[in-house]
Amino acid sequence: MTLQIHDHKHQDEVCEQCVFDTDVHHFDEDVIQASHRQPVLVDMWADWCGPCHFLTPVLMRVVPSYGGRVRLAKIEVDEDENMKIAGRYGARGFPTVLMFVGGQEVARFHGAKPEHFVRQFIDAHLPA
Fold it and tell me: How far is it, in rounded angstroms, from Cα 84 to Cα 9?
């Protein structure tokens, strides 16, 4: 799986895949600020987590199908200081997926979910 590396110099351009990695140092810019322009899903995951590996291909299929109307920020919680983000949002198990709109968390789900669930989750938070 190859993820787009977020280019902070060109953040206003539409990402080809709308899926990118972020970290504790760029989270506020990549997620909080960006969610004022469009909804941002955050996938908090870990390499050792089996359900995370089930959910990743689902997210990788679903998010690009929205044609840029929603973005997906992936944050590996065991990398560097990224667990601070999980702590900040009270994520206790993984995967935890958060939806940010207008700078605020508006919804979340935990665990591996099927594609139809993920689509319903996103649809419920997209602007009409």
Answer: 25
Percentage above 70 pLDDT, the chain: 87
Query: Catalytic: which of 40, 41, 46, 49?
Result: 49
> Which residues contact residue 40 at a Cβ distance below 8 angstroms, ignoring those fewer than 6 apart?
30, 31, 34, 70, 71, 72, 73, 99, 100, 101
Statement: residue 118 has pLDDT above 70 = yes
Q: In the annotation, is 18 catalytic? A: no
From 31, 52, 59, 97, active-site residue: 52
Q: Indicate the pLDDT class of residue 49, thresholds 50, 70 and 90.
A: very high
Structural domains in the chain, sorted by start: 16-123 (3.40.30.10)
Tokens matching residue 106: 């508006």
**Is-catalytic flag, 52?**
yes
Query: Which two tokens mark 107?
Result: 């919804």
